[in-house]
Each structure stands twice: as C-alpha cells, then as structure tokens.
Amino acid sequence: MNAIARINLLPHREERRKRSRQHFATVSGGTAIIGVALAFLMYQYYDRQIQTQNDRNNFLATEIKKLDKDIAEINELRNQIQALLARKQIIETLQADRAQTVHLLEQMVRQMPEGVYLKSMRQTSQKVHILGYAQSNARVSTLMRNIEASPWLDQPLLVEVKAGTTADKKRVSQFEMYLQLKRAAAKDAAKPAPAKDAAKKG
C-alpha cells in the first residue's frame, strides 16, 4: 500500500495540460487562418462586385453622354426645322398676299353700287379702311351687302354716316367703313374649277 501511495501524477497532468495548450493553440491558429481566409475571400468578392458596378456605372455614364449629345443634335435639328417652317410660312404668306392689292381694287370696283364714290382707301395687313360718299344711306347698305357676298372681302363695319356735300354742292352721305380681306377665301377662289363643274358649264 505504501508503494502505491507514492506514485507521482504531476508529470502526467503536466503532459495533459501541455497537450491541451497545443490543441487550443492549433485550433485557435486554424480558426484565425480560416477567418483571415474567409475575410480575404469576402473582400475579393465584394471588390469584384464593386468593380463590376463601377464598370456598369462608367458604361452608363458614357452612354448618357452619347444620348445627351444626340438629344442636343436633335434639338438643334428641330430648331432648324422650325426656322425653315417659319420661313416657308412667311414665303407662303407673301405669295398669298402679293396679289391682294390687285384683288382688293378689282373687288371694290366690282362690288361698288351705283351712286357710291370712294374718297380714300388704306390697307393695313388684312384690314382695309375706306372713306367715301353715297347718294343715300340705302346705297351704303347695298355696298355692305355686296362686300359680305364677295369671295375676297368680309366683315364690313360701318363706323359712321353723316350728311355732307360734294365739290359741285350736291348733298350726299359721307361714310367711314372698315372691312377685312379673306386670305383663305382668296386661295379657294384661285383654285381651278373641278372637271365635273366645268363640264356642266360647258
């Protein structure tokens, strides 16, 4: 019994502690290495994702610049087209108005009833101001009806009618009137008659 009681267990315990420390160190080192490796892999993954997104952003920025340039060119072309259309409209208006003075004079002669005389006539764009003499108010009314029936003239507006005398002392009515030139009607009137109507007239 005395021999058994004298067995020394310290070396065995020390050896077990040493193995435990080594195991802990190994596990800790392995865990640290695995953690570093995982962190590196995650960094690489997210770095690639960020780089890919940056590439996409750069591509989109380049394409947006191209689109902005195309839009600027389209806007410039649109402005040029608008300018050309405006010039075309001006030219068409000038062409339509070129013969209006002739038509105005021709219509005033054609629509002027007997006993009505013009003193002055002034045209401003599509508006015409006339002053004249009439042997009676009824003849002024006839002139207004003739103007309304004209394909070139429209909207007669009588400003005033007052009694007056001519150079040879005849009593007449002095009148002042405004009227409008009908541009659209003038264009329609200038069109040739259809073949069907022409055949009927023939």
Name the CATH architecture of the largest domain: 2-Layer Sandwich
Mean pLDDT: 80
> Uncertain runs with pLDDT below 50, 5 residues or more?
185-202
Intertermini distance: 158 Å
**How would you spell out the order of helices and strands?**
HHHEEHEEHH
Number of domains: 2
With strands numbered from the N-terminus, the spatial order across the biggest sheet is 1-2-4-3
How does the SSE layout of this entry go?
Elements: H1 2-5, H2 10-98, H3 100-111, E1 116-124, E2 127-134, H4 137-149, E3 153-165, E4 171-181, H5 183-190, H6 195-201
Antiparallel strand pairs: 1-2, 2-4, 3-4
What do you see in this structure?
With 202 residues, the chain is α+β, with helices and mostly antiparallel strands. The protein has helices spanning 2-5, 10-98, 100-111, 137-149, 183-190, 195-201, and strands at residues 116-124, 127-134, 153-165, 171-181. It folds into two domains: 8-98; 99-190, General secretion pathway protein M, EpsM (Gyrase A, domain 2). It is rod-shaped, with a radius of gyration of 52 Å. Residues 185-202 have low confidence and may be disordered.
